[in-house]
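Researcher: We're teaching a course module on how sequence relates to structure. For the next exercise, students receive a sequence and then see the predicted structure as tokens, so they can try to spot secondary structure elements on their own. Here is the exercise chain.
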Amino acid sequence: MSTSIPVLELNTTSFGSTSWREVGKKKRNIPRQQRLDIQRKNTDFYNFVDKTLQSLSKKRLHVKKFTLTDSLDKGKSVSRIDRWISFVIESDVEELSLNFDQGWYCRKYQLPQCVLVAKSIIALTLCQCKLESSCGDINLSSLKKLSLCDIIGDDRIIQKIVAGSPVIEDMRFTSCLGLKSIKFEGLTKAMSIELTYNGDLERVELEAPNLYSLYIHQKKQCEINLVSCSNLKMLALSAPSITDKWLHDHLSQLPLIEYLNIHGCHKLERLKISSHSLKTFYMMYSKKDELVEIDIDTPNLCNFAYCGHTVKPFSSTKMALSEAIYQMVQPIAPWNVEKIEFLAKLNNSKLLTLVTQLAKDMVIPQQLRETLPSPSYNVKQLKLETGNLVIGLDIVELMDSLLWIAPLPEILLIALSIDMEPWMDTICFKFSYEKPILKGKKSSCCKFLPIPCWRHCLKSVMIENFRVLGDEETLKAKEASLEKYFKENAEILETFQFLRSDISALKDL
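Model: And here is the predicted structure for the students to work with:
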């Protein structure tokens, strides 16, 4: 019968090694006795770890999790680390995490064979070490989760590790040098795979019939074959090799796909997506992209997000979305007819979120407002996320533009960055209306709308958390200008109220 030790975490870079490196850099200015004291503390610490781990091993105490971070800044560190790893392997460790950062020896550290035959390991994380393909047999019979980051290892060793892990479920390969080709077969248990920033990777072929989630992020050309992943539900792609034909061919073989994220696929020209199962679609457009148009036929789509400095011609079936996000990135193209028409495609969203770094970029030119209908008249919740305070922008000017975009919102949120935790604060506008009914001739503000806008049916306004737009004097001025704006423009307004709490209360949230 064994006793379990839940977690052992060692970070020698924070205790001894970092201090010793700093001593080395400044040794001319540090007294000799102080340097000797630091060296003695390091030695005492290492001896303590040695005795502790050896004792656990001898007593056959079970170690559930062991995490080690070491800079390996001295050659003798290697034998010490080998010894520690051997002790925890003998203690049937279940979760092993090894990170060899900072030191110049880290790239030369070769993982000991005992790790690769440890039948107790369920989760293995390796960062900045070397895996030799000439190692012996690999038997990780309990391994379910594997994460390799910034390691040196060729195709053969990666293939051997995966083949020697028959119940593997989750795999992550990040910045692995020497990894050129991945061909995984018979992965019946695999549920999630991530391949990111592997600069040498040229080919990916996966046979994982039960794979649920796949994320591939590559900067260079890479041949990708996912045809044998028919049960895939979540797919995120950032790969310059993806073409219109590739995407069409693969999506047609993924009848259960629910989540799709596409960015950095520069060769896509005419993005066409047809899927009855797709529920979430994220699309990022950059100047490098050759994209000409977007056409989506996704009747069950719930969440849609588009990110880019401009929009492309966009066509779709009628979408009743839970949330739509339009994120504008710098340099932002001026507002034009295409942008307004794009927002109109999102008109049936329960929540429409607009994201921009500068709040002033949300002010729609008056000329467009006078010649085009408000695009989001069905949207009941409108949210603006902006990366700056509304400095140099009249809050009334911003409000007037937002209420033109969505002329009958029940809730309007403005989320602003602040310079204290939690780093974001939100102003909340709550509106109530009498039933909007057309009476007589349409006013100029509603001439393009099927229903009256807020000016003709707004009954009450409540503004909460109005506290982040400046000092007390500035706040009072902005409050007064908003109150004047609504009272002058809302024909039947009955109540107008501010609820402002102290910003220091945020610290308790």
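Model: If you want an answer key for the exercise: Confidence is low (pLDDT under 50) at residues 14-27, 503-509. Residues 124 and 384 are 42 Å apart (CA to CA).
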